[in-house]
Amino acid sequence: MNAPFNARLATSPDVFASVLGPDAASRDSYRRAMMQAVDVALENAHVHDRPYAGNRLEDLMGLVDSIEPFPDTGLGTATIIDEVGRLAVRHALAVSHPRAVAHLHCPVAVPALAAEALISVTNQSLDSWDQSPFATLVEERVVRWLAAEAGLGEAASGSFTSGASQSNMTALHLAAERCGLAARHTGVIFTSAHAHFSVVKSARILGFAADAVVTVDVDSEGRMRPEALSAGIEKAIQAGRPVVAIVATAGTTDLGAIDPLEAIADLADRHGIFLHVDAAYGGGLLFSRHKKRLAGLERARSIALDFHKMLFQPISCGVLLVADKADFLPLGMKADYLNPEEAVFEGAPNLVEHSFQTTRRADALKVLMTARALGRDGLDALICRTLENASAAAEAVTARAYLELARQPSLSTVVFRTVSASSPEDADEKTNRIRARLFETGVAALATTVLDGRVHFKLTLLNPRSTPDVVNRVLDAIGDVAKDMETNNAD
Ligand SMILES: *Cc1c(COP(=O)(O)O)cnc(C)c1O
């Protein structure tokens, strides 16, 4: 005969204390684990002055393969924090290192890190009010504040997302639902040639035809050309194709270019087209004195903002704002167990009706805690510093004879290449090799991208604790490696 459950399970009390409950043992285990995790993070981050000080790819693969994920007998929380936790920090890209300047990948604000701990320990889920009584209302409060900051009206609403990929996809779904099913077969979505690839990916996921996304030409600074958009719209109308949406970009991923939002909004208004603005990157300007550069944003029907880019939030943290909450109706499916037709809690919002997701993190809390902790002045100072660093970097590039600046920076990215006597193909290849060498030697983590058909370096300067000196060091290192490669080639 089987023993009663209790008798069998009572044999390993430690296992039960490892699930947090109201009892002293599990609370103590939680406190010790969190303190230890913080210590491991502090002791193992920045032990070398390098953005990447971990193993090279092959060795790292071997190391990770050697970790047995599921031993028969558990090793215990303390052992695992010390062992796996330490490795995770040591072999991480140090995003807060000033020479980690590759991607739209920011250092994190301390109030947001504290908020993360509270988000995970309370483990609220935003799908229904009864699973997140305070957090649901916090998201609504933060969304109302963000909508007002973006200049949207009283009817606005929104929902936190995993980031702009999800925000863009949701926006395109809402736009498509407005046009009916046929729109997915013949509809057109206009976006610029420099728009984020998630626009095309979303269209494919949402069942649009392969030719649905029409890319509009950009000007020399990478901004959508409204005349080209206008011509494209006329052409679509003549061909009898419904125009589902215009996706403008406020801050392109490479150049930080901000599309001419007013002129685009004029066209959207004239033709009654859904205007979505992907402000994943440039939306950060809303929290700075440079907000005016986003004039026209308030005329969008939906807006994507990412806080894990310019706003120092731990991943993931984005929001989709809509100008009219009625646009969320297509996501308003009812589930008997969650948000029944007959409301159980009268007047309580169930935010599952704003999202593709069901279970969803309470990420608005970290934005609230960061914004309230730092205030308008604080965020402005941090953001402006990153923009100043980019201007200084552009000057430093220009001042070096071996470098060539591609464009004046618009936000905090700086795109340039090395001047090369060799063929353009050789120069492209060399740029990639320099990038890899700088990463592997831990000198700098920088990016490459293709502009005007050629490989360029890209610095993304999201770190307000960086300085022009740091950037100078990176540019010097590029010169040194380039020279070194030339010397070795000549041998
Ligand atoms: C980063 C980025 C995205 C993708 O956002 P995720 O948060 O990574 O999903 C979309 N659009 C632009 C302009 C971006 O810079």
Protein described:
With 491 residues, this protein is α/β, with parallel strands linked by helices. The protein has three domains: 17-94; 125-361, Aspartate Aminotransferase, domain 2; 373-490, Aspartate Aminotransferase, domain 1 (Alpha-Beta Complex), CATH 3.90.1150.170. It is 43% helix and 13% strand. It has helices at residues 5-9, 13-17, 24-44, 57-65, 77-90, 110-122, 133-150, 164-179, 182-186, 198-205, 226-238, 261-271, 364-398, 424-440, 468-490; strands at 100-101, 157-161, 188-192, 213-216, 243-249, 274-279, 302-306, 318-322, 403-405, 413-418, 445-451, 454-460. The strands form two sheets. The protein has a seven-stranded mixed beta sheet with strand order 2-8-7-6-5-3-4, sandwiched between helices. β11 and β12 form a beta hairpin. The longest helix is centred in the C-terminal third of the chain and has 35 residues, at 364-398. It is globular. The mean pLDDT is 95. The structure holds pyridoxal-5'-phosphate. Pyridoxal-5'-phosphate binds at residues 104, 163-165, 196, 198, 249, 252-253, 278, 280-281, 306, 318.
Bound molecules: pyridoxal-5'-phosphate
- Poorly predicted ranges (pLDDT <50, ≥5 residues)? none
Radius of gyration: 25 Å
Strand order of the largest sheet: 2-8-7-6-5-3-4
Distance between the termini: 81 Å
Put simply, the count of helices is 15
Report on the biggest sheet.
7 strands, mixed
CATH topology of the largest domain: Aspartate Aminotransferase, domain 2
Give the integer mean of the pLDDT values. Answer: 95
Structural class: alpha/beta
